[in-house]
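hey m, so remember when u said the tokens were messed up on ur end? i reran from scratch. heres the input so u can diff it against urs
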Amino acid sequence: MDICVFLSAADLDDRYTVPAREFARLLAQGGHTLVWGGSDTGLMKVVADAVQQAGGRLAGVSVEFLAHKARPGCDEMVVAVDLAERKARLLARSDAVVVMVGGTGTLDEATEILELKKHGLHAKPVVLLNSAGFYDGLEQQLRRMEEEGFLPLPLSDLVFFAEDGACALAYLEQAAGVR
């Protein structure tokens, strides 16, 4: 399975790097490919390092204004013109999506992926990896949207909230019929 991971390129502490590294290791050991933003900085680097150390494959999609931060030595690397093209290429290249911790860019990616899924423009499983309760507030907001009729389908059809990498990967493999 090709698993797109949206996440921060910032340097973060162990609350976020340890679960990200664990998920990346499990992804690689499961024979899956990491499809990610291609950066060799911060949490993106942590995840790519862990995938490569576990023998996994890397498929990056960078963007022109960040190409100087692109990771060397990937199995695949594409440079998109802008962020919109990058998101489209990441989604097109993947079978499933995991959203890890991140800032406004990651939140933008997550909400666009959920919006596209809501409208039936993709049916890929989406997981929010809720490391250290990072997405508790977003989960609460999405549940409120569901309860108050803002979502045309059940929240459980849009996204799965996982507390750890093993749970996230198990959900994705089951949803994709792997193993």
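this time it looks ok to me. The domain at 2-173 is CATH 3.40.50.450 (Rossmann fold). if urs says something different then somethings off w ur setup not the seq
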